[in-house]
């Protein structure tokens, strides 16, 4: 018999984080929290919805800074892989600091963040994949959000297993994502997650 080699972990690098990032939605759901999170002195005392709402609001307060930082890392990664070659290796530090300062917070001139940015090795200009996978994850989470039992929905869970985990890289991941969603991908769930509201048509 031919040897069966698991392929579920060999998906494209700009998707590989999406399944785990999607699971980060579970702890923000009240029903999920109520299934295990309680006052140790009285298991009937759950986290109040008002407190959860405040936690969600506080998360949004720093999303802009977080994603601007992620964007700066991705652009720095791309700049180094496209602009640095054998004859200008000395430009690595000034170029990286320039990109980081232009996109995110200013970098102190005598520091060398790029020297300890471990993701610059092995990703091959693919650090942008973290944010891209996060956008895919937000879209995938809508399957559970719109299911009858929410994040507890067994049908959605089996669909995730069948269309994403089970097939791995045995088919184009774009096909797998759309089959799981039941529609073309959308950026809207990600924009909603980070607090970016799309203006109504015709408004300014």
Descriptive labels:
single chain; about 200 residues; globular; disordered N terminus
Can you describe what's shown?
The chain has a domain at 63-128. 50% of the residues lie in helices and 0% in strands. It has helices spanning 18-23, 30-34, 49-61, 63-83, 92-103, 129-145, 154-165, 173-181, 188-193. α4 runs antiparallel to α5 and α7 runs antiparallel to α8. The longest helix has 21 residues, at 63-83.
Describe the secondary structure blueprint for this structure.
Elements: H1 18-23, H2 30-34, H3 49-61, H4 63-83, H5 92-103, H6 129-145, H7 154-165, H8 173-181, H9 188-193
Radius of gyration: 21 Å
The biggest beta sheet is recorded as:
none
Q: What shape does the CA trace take? A: globular
The N- and C-terminal alpha carbons lie at a distance of 64 Å
Question: Helicity level, as a percent range?
Answer: 40-55%
| Strand composition percent | under 5%
Unreliable residue runs: 1-6
The total of beta strands comes to: 0
What would you say about this model in short?
It is built from 9 helices and no strands. The chain is mainly alpha-helical and 204 residues long.
